[in-house]
Amino acid sequence: MTKAITIMKREHLSLNTVLHVLNQLVLDLESGRLRSDDVDYELIEKIMHYIEEFLDTMHHPKEDNYLFPALLKKTSEANDVILELQEQHEKGVEHRKRLEVHIQAMKDKHPGQTEKVIDALKDYLAAHRAHMKLEDTVVIPLAERVLTEEDWAPIDAAFNENKDPVFGDIPQNKFRKLLSDITFLAPSPIGLGGGRK
Amino acid sequence: MLKIQNLTSHYGRIQALHGVDLEVNEGELVALVGGNGAGKTTLLRTISGLQDASGGSVSFEGNDITDMVANKRVGLDIAQVPEGRQVFTALSVEDNIRLGAFIQKDKARIATDLEKMYARFPILKEKRNQAAGTLSGGQQQMLAMARALMSRPRLLLLDEPSMGLSPVLVMEIFAIIEELKEQGVTIFLVEQNATAALRVADRGYVMETGKITLTGSGENLLNDETVKAAYLGI
């Protein structure tokens, strides 16, 4: 496994871990264990901030600038899947905007927003999971098959610059702090239960 | 710093450790991975003096401590976070933390260290007057770590710190372990979560049926086909 693939998979693991917290909020809201009045908006905002910022500044630029161009140069097999990833990306922006609108409406206590937030959260989670699944099951195997050691060298170097939010070597980075805040705020037993009671 | 040579240990007639050789150098984070019943916890208990060695030796900074009782080893700046947290459930969170400094007589130092623990583990400050038994598993793990750190250990022994915790709490625990390493604490980490443990470790050992079967850098072990197949599920 190349360095870039190891890092990509590790980053997917970190993202999935944060999505897991969001998923628990959906389950709690849906089952009524969590009332809309008790929703911890700070927690949701931090989770979304983490996901979006991490993807925009760390994950996607390396794929868009290094991995995908190398794949497109090497094989036409990559055309469809990269186009699909780009479409997913655009849809993901729409999902995020819709979620933000409904969260704000729920915050402002507009009626009927809980169900809309649940649906928007589900779409947001599903979109991120589908995106990672496509990369894990199609893009990475394709890259492993067609790219040579020479092709991988600049991709590995680019990904190697990424500092993993948890296992990286810059302890004070903002993602590390955000993750720590998310863990503190998330309700037990998922997190430490230090958030809104 | 810690040197284990040809160590054996028995539970009655059952031999649990079969000539274990292992070394932890100052400032290192060394992981011991292996399945259930491999002898990992027995080894840790023998290092901390909670289990008798039947042969071989354990030395700390060049001094043989094989026969030294457990509480004297705390005086050598060795602390253990036991498997299953083992907090004192009826005592308050704060009393549990203070117990970690039971050999310390300097009250000002205890107060300073207590504040440091509350700064590092804010959830414990929130819950400081609650009985420890009312805490969740993740909160208890933070408490067990804070209690161990109160003795300002130079060698920290961690037994399955991520056991039974949610993915985000596992990430937090490993991030704390990394921070402690950066602060200069030498760490011997026993874990079933081999991927996470070997990722943060400088070096690792693989244990099976009371014997060390493989050793190497964390990265090399992560890439070792035997380790991948047996412990990483890939």
TrEMBL record, chain A:
CDD domains: Hr-like (cd12108). One of its GO terms (cellular component) is plasma membrane. It comes from the Bacteria. Pfam families: Hemerythrin. InterPro entries: Hemerythrin-like. Residues 4-143 form the Hemerythrin-like domain. It comes from Terasakiella brassicae. This is Cation-binding protein. PANTHER family: BLL2471 PROTEIN-RELATED, HEMERYTHRIN-LIKE DOMAIN-CONTAINING PROTEIN.
From TrEMBL, chain B:
GO terms for biological process: L-amino acid transport. Pfam families: ABC_tran. Keywords: Amino-acid transport, ATP-binding, Nucleotide-binding, Transport. InterPro entries: AAA+_ATPase, ABC_branched_ATPase_LivF/BraG, ABC_transporter-like_ATP-bd, ABC_transporter-like_CS, BCAA_Transport_ATP-bd_LivF, P-loop_NTPase. The keyword RNA-binding does not apply. PROSITE patterns: ABC_TRANSPORTER_1 (PS00211), ABC_TRANSPORTER_2 (PS50893). Coiled coil: none annotated. Gene3D superfamilies: P-loop containing nucleotide triphosphate hydrolases. GO terms for molecular function: ATP binding; ATP hydrolysis activity; branched-chain amino acid transmembrane transporter activity. Residues 2-234 form the ABC transporter domain. Belongs to the ABC transporter superfamily. This is ABC transporter ATP-binding protein. It comes from Terasakiella brassicae.
